[in-house]
Amino acid sequence: MSRILTGIQASGRPHLGNILGAIEPAIKLSQNPENESFLFIADLHSLTTIKNPDLLKENTKAVASAWLACGFDAEKNFFYRQSKLAHFHTELLWYLSCLTPYPMLANAHSFKEKSDKLSDVNAGLFTYPVLQAADIILYQAHFVPVGKDQKQHLEMSKDIAASFNRVFGELFVLPESLINEQIMTIPGVDGQKMSKSYNNYIDIFLSEKELYKQIKGIVTDATPLEEPKNPDTCLVFKLYSLIADESQIAEMRQKYLAGGYGYGHAKKEFLDLILDKYGNQRDLFDYYMADSAALEAKLKVGEEKAADIASDTMKKVRTLLKFD
Ligand code: ADP
Ligand code: TRP
User: Which of 45, 131, 149 has the most ligand 2 atoms within 8 A of CB, as the residue to mutate?
Assistant: First the structure.
């Protein structure tokens, strides 16, 4: 049995890029009966950049609703908010901070990048990787599926866990990152990487009307409707192919090559495919967003289960430190 753990920042509503690149692959891993999955919303980490508690709460709700809507089984697995277990995470953060060399944090790529870009360079941004290490080793996770950008953070987590074991005694599993190099970067409506920060995303949970508006914004060339078109250079075709099955892709390819088929037609087919393929997920998302009690109940169960494990680890940590 392997323990798989990952954290998701509460930075906004998940878009199609997040769903195809992170949510669906993680749910697949969690469905393997050999695995036990821990999925949490890293709202303490989000506080490094978001200072509006209402927004943070709304984002947390949207992220949790999206994971449940996409099929994450919160009963079989562990599903929780980091802030509800903050005392465990932050206590361990402190012990680990006392083992983490200052230059390791000062030279971290993501800290350097954020401190160049942001006007608010706070201490939370600096110790961000140490809290991340605490998040992981608190639950003795073996594998951590993350995007390529998190590779260095994961190396730090492993080093910090090894330091603890060396200095205070063998306790922690040394976590390994699981970086899926095959997962492609999903393009946004402008052809750049789809991202919340570029405002070029497709939010499959929007109302049909608003979703269609986003899809209509996909950039195309000016080939007239009657003329044949090249599917392989068309962004609409590319996005459609990411979610369509083989026969649907072949059919649309033929229409492009035959001519008399406009980008507007392709966009409408893309909309219809999203509505069809993600109909169930869209309904569930709306259900959890509207029914806070149902969402809260799912998280509460996860938080209680997670607390048992975190509390057991912290007892062992305190014993090794001779605090208890
Ligand atoms: P965003 O750029 O929208 O803020 P995040 O950085 O919060 O997205 O990423 C959350 C997860 O979604 C990460 O695992 C990341 O690798 C994945 N992800 C984000 N954007 C894409 C994309 N365009 N294609 C594939 N995966 C993506
Ligand atoms: N830093 C991660 C990100 O920005 C989020 C995160 C916080 C995380 N704690 C974690 C990811 C623990 C994996 C494991 O995407």
Answer: 45
**Is the CATH code 1.10.3210.10 the one for domain 208-281?**
no
Q: Which atom of ligand 1 is nearest to the CA of 196?
A: 3
Instruction: Report the pLDDT value the prediction gives residue 181, as an integer from 0 to 100.
Output: 84
All structural domains of the chain with their residue ranges: 2-184+292-321, 208-281
Which residue, among 41, 30, 42, 22, has the nearest Cα to 2 in the 3D structure? 30
DSSP 256: H
Query: Which ligand 2 atom is at minimum distance from the Cα of 135?
Result: 12
Query: What distance, in Å, lies between the first and last C-alpha atoms of the chain?
Result: 31
Among the atoms of ligand 1, which is closest to the Cα of residue 15? 3
pLDDT confidence bin for 182, thresholds 50/70/90: confident
| CB 37 near ligand 2, within 6 Å | no
Average pLDDT over residues 258-274: 97
Helix H or strand E encompassing 5:
strand 2-9
Write the class of the CATH domain 2-184+292-321.
alpha beta
Each residue of 56-93: pLDDT tens digit?
Answer: 999 999 999 999 999 999 999 999 999 999 999 999 99
CA of 63 to the centre of ligand 1 (A): 13
Residue 51 in this model has a pLDDT that exceeds 90:
yes
| Distances, alpha carbon 293 to alpha carbons 75, 77, 176, 299, in Å | 16, 20, 36, 10
pLDDT > 70 in the chain, percent: 100
Q: How far is the CA of 69 from the centre of ligand 2 (A)?
A: 21
Task: Say how many Å lie between the CA of residue 278 and the centre of ligand 2.
Answer: 26
pTM: 0.94
Structure token pair of residue 164: 């603890």
